[in-house]
Amino acid sequence: MASRSRIGVLLINVGTPEAPRPREVRRYLREFLSDPRVFDAPSPVRWFVLNFMILPFRPQRSAAAYARIWGRDGRSPLLSFSESFTEALARALGDGYDVVLAMRYGSPSIARGLLGLRSRGIDRIVVFPLYPQAASSSTGTSLEEVFRLAALPWNVPALSVVPPFHDHPDLARSFAELGRPVLDALRPDHVLFSFHGLPERHIFRSDDTGLHCLSVQDCCERIVPANRNCYRAQCFMTARAIAGAAGCDPARWSVSFQSRLGRDPWIRPYTDEIVRALPARGVRRLAVFCPAFVADCLETLEEIGIGLREMFLEHGGEELRLVPSLNAHPVWIDAAADLVRGAARGLASVP
Predict the structure, then answer these.
(1) pTM score, whole prediction
(2) 351 has a pLDDT exceeding 70
(3) What is the pLDDT of residues 266-280, one digit of tens each?
(4) Based on the number of CB atoms within 10 Å of its own CB, is 80 exposed (0-12), middle (13-18) or buried (19 or more)?
(5) What are phi and psi of 241, to 5 degrees?
(6) d(C-alpha 255, C-alpha 290), whole Å
(7) 82, 13 contact by CB (below 8 A)
């Protein structure tokens, strides 16, 4: 099939350091935290905090955390799992698609992905941000970078974007299938759905009305026009779908948010506070899903699978098990292929 009749697929995830060493982690954190969509302080404040409060100290701690999960192949789990997913998706889509992986920060870069597609004569591209729930600090910044780079050449490619897929039924079914062996073996007293956190101000900014998000009781109970772009509301929707698909007892599951940074208020409830309190409520066996991530990474394998497990045991729990992420699960591959084909229908044929 001629290149000009093929459709490119640009997969985007957040990124990873190239090695679990302070130098590489510092380089990654500098790029990540210099992004105003991630750290949305005024530029002088962001520069001062980054260079005098974060980079002198955090790379050493983060490098040690990465070292606890780094693969024997010399690569991060996120990169390995993402590459396996890329290969499986390419097989599922077939010869009409050219699938490439990119990271918003670090390598392989978005610029490299776009350049590779362009060099093969592909000028119709489906952009697939691999974040089930949309946030300015993940989906927003990835799309901003794609649009900026795609507009640089004289001939700008046609782009179509896969929308957030927090409500895709096969997302819930994939997580439920991955969770079922864990739930059957553990028979947990409680199931926790832990999502990556965001500062509360990000949630306020996602509400165009300024009257609903974090202002109305049970504001995330359902999706309405005011919270249609709310990351927190989308997280709750995903959790409800997975809990239903997995047959969780409504009285024995809850939602929390992890990975907060700094002193500003982040969206609640906080995962670490919930986990510390659960043993006092009689919870001895705990299963944890992390449905903000489609590939296992530092936040799942180390933060939850190691750090949170240690915390749970220290406070009287007996066993905590992490449900694996989607990685290259067959149901997830099929769902991702459907999402790509749906977005590709919006691209006009190129003669």
Answers:
(1) 0.96
(2) no
(3) 999 999 999 999 999
(4) middle
(5) -65, -45
(6) 10
(7) yes
Strand 124-129, strand 7-16: pairing: parallel
Short-list 230, 244, 227, 137, CA closest to 193:
244
Residues 6+ apart with CB under 8 A from 281: none
pLDDT band for 262, please (50, 70, 90 cuts).
Answer: confident
| Beta carbons of 304 and 258 less than 8 angstroms apart | yes
Domains of the chain: 3-165+330-344 (3.40.50.1400), 169-322 (3.40.50.1400)
pLDDT digits (tens, 9 = 90+) for 3-24: 557 999 999 999 999 999 999 9
How many residues would you count in the chain?
A: 351
Q: What is the mean pLDDT of residues 63-78?
A: 96
State the virtual CA torsion across 247, 252, 258, 264 in degrees, nearest 10.
Answer: 130
Give pLDDT tens digits for 143-154: 999 999 999 999
DSSP structural state of residue 345: T
Tokens linked to 270? 């906080």
Residue type, 340: V
Count other C-beta atoms under 10 Å from residue 40's C-beta.
14
Percent of the chain whose predicted confidence (pLDDT) is above 70: 98
- 130 touches 294 (CB < 8 A): yes
The dihedral sign for the CA sequence 307, 313, 314, 316: positive
- pLDDT category at 346 given cuts 50, 70, 90 is confident
User: Among 100, 241, 253, which Cα is nearest to 176's?
Assistant: 241
State whether residue 253 is helix, strand or coil.
Answer: strand
Contact 258, 194 (CB under 8 A): yes
**Calpha distance 12→173 (Å, rounded):** 22
Tokens encoding 256: 């929390």
Structure tokens at 174: 């994939």
Rg (CA), the chain: 20
Tell me how far the alpha carbon of residue 86 is from its chain's centroid.
16
